[in-house]
Amino acid sequence: MIEIYNWQELSRAKQTELLSRPVSTNKASLVAGVRNILNEVKQNGDKALLEFTSKFDGVDLDNIEVSQNEIKQAYSLVSQDDINLIKNSIVRISNYHEVMKPKTTVCDTNDGVVCKKVYKPIEKVGLYVPGGSAPLVSTLIMLAAPAQIAGCKEVYVTTPCDKEGNVYPLILIAADICKVSKIYKLGGAQAIAALAYGTETVSKVNKIYGPGNSWVTEAKQQVSNDSHGAAIDLPARPSEVLVVADEVADPRFVAADLLAQVEHGTDSQALLITTSQILADKVRNEVSKQTSIAQRKAIIEKSLESSAIIVVDTLSQAINIANEYASEHLILNIENADNYIDSIENAGAVFLGPWAAEALGDYITGSNHVLPTYGYAKAYSGLATIDFMKAISIQNVSKQGIKNIGQIAMRLADIEGLKAHENAIAIRLESL
Fold first, then answer.
1. Per-residue pLDDT for 328 more than 90?
2. 51 carries an active-site annotation
3. Would you list which residues are annotated within the binding site for Zn(2+)?
4. Which of 28, 60, 69, 404 has a CA positioned 20 to 30 A from the CA of residue 301?
5. Active site residue 324
6. Looking at the predicted structure, is the pLDDT value of residue 26 above 80?
7. Residues 263, 286, 328, 422: which is the catalytic one?
8. pLDDT of res. 384
9. CA gap 137, 79 in Å, rounded
10. Averaged over 317-341, what is the pLDDT?
11. Quick check: pTM over 0.90?
């Protein structure tokens, strides 16, 4: 059961403890295990992938790649209503990411120097879509839609299959609508290894995206540190939410938002910070009531052990705590929530008011749901179209331009003792 704490009565150590994320155990074992998987895939390619899929997923595959026939068959397994729903979601997510697509910027200083920044799509990208305890169709859309908007030429998807070797139909349909290049029946660290290094079947990519369990997260970290591996999107850890609520908040809404987050996994975390003891008590009771009938009750009960309800004196204090925690999801279920936007410094995504359920952001508002967790919101942003692109700086210098700035650059090169740099400018000035 989730516990209630009065912030003012807690020691500094206890306050720090409440804001600490659940810690994964056996880190050394995890690192070594992932390293072994990466090495096996690098050395043995498809053979290693098939062996790991049999060992970890309990299925013996003949083919790693999803066939066009399997994609076609998926449409026959799903209602037209659900297909239309997926299309609607893709349109909304695509529209948002089209608006957010970066545009060429120009700086003309009118002295013969013009600098530009142009954006080009990353050519080959790999999308990891979890499929363990829940097939995350929404994650496929959140990754594939911006990749398509960015203009990535090759988009490869890896996602685990079931015991019969089948991928969840809606994932295949969403991937098909988003025009991904290929889909592979792979999960876990071995999927990340395949995308990072390539195999006989799986294409090597430039950058890997998508959330996953601790093995996937560690694998992404390791391949990003390998010059022969691949870049990654952002650090990913277990999902989390922090709700700031006042006395007018509906305890049913607040409890539902907390449980919606902790049902992700036993290492997820939910915090409520409120100025009302009465609301705290009501939310605690409502959490108990909603948990008792929850489909993923066991997962929720476990994750609530590392969650908390915190009572503070003022909303200002609540906002300060929220900024320190830097949550993946921050819900401001308070009166005049708009007035507090400028006070928010650290959060992956912010949801304003009583009707902005975080679950809406997971699926359909348009904004991306791949967000920084574990406090990384202090330095990282949520996934966006720009993450599927790279910027190229272009510098155009005329004769007048080098006349105007050449001597400055030469002196700076001289200060740094880089005479070849200085000469590269001087030789041009002498030619004018």
1. yes
2. no
3. 261, 264, 362, 421
4. 28
5. no
6. no
7. 328
8. 98
9. 15
10. 98
11. yes
